[in-house]
Specification:
By secondary structure, the chain is of the alpha+beta class. It has 6 helices and 3 strands. The longest helix has 17 residues, at 77-93. The radius of gyration is 13 Å and the shape is globular.
């Protein structure tokens, strides 16, 4: 139960949900790309990614001065389904929009 609560808490913040939507493609994304796509500063992106990592939703890899993030490939199936449901629900708010754009 604690893992589910941690996942839902992590996804409850719009910027983090938007970041998870971006990572759903399965590839790695550097902080610089996430900054641009999320419209956020480096410190804000790093803070949000730390929350997602603590919840076990993302994995990171240091590449010189950059950190690259991807969806955690070791997610348990129930956690993966929960994330997929949140991403799908966010996409239904406004077709083609990331969650933060849907509320604008």
């Amino acid at each position: 139960m604690n893992r589910i609560v941690a996942i839902l808490s992590a996804l409850a913040e719009p910027t983090r949900l938007q970041a998870i939507c971006l990572l759903q493609d399965g590839s790695e994304h550097c902080v610089c790309e996430l900054m641009q796509r999320l419209g956020a500063s480096q410190s804000r992106v790093s803070r949000h990614m730390a929350v997602l990592k603590a919840a076990g939703l993302v994995a990171d890899r240091r590449d010189a001065q950059w950190v690259r993030y991807r969806r955690n490939p070791a997610l348990p199936p129930d956690a993966a389904r929960l994330i997929e449901a949140a991403v799908a629900a966010a996409g239904r708010e406004k077709p083609g929009a990331l969650p933060a754009e849907a509320s604008a």
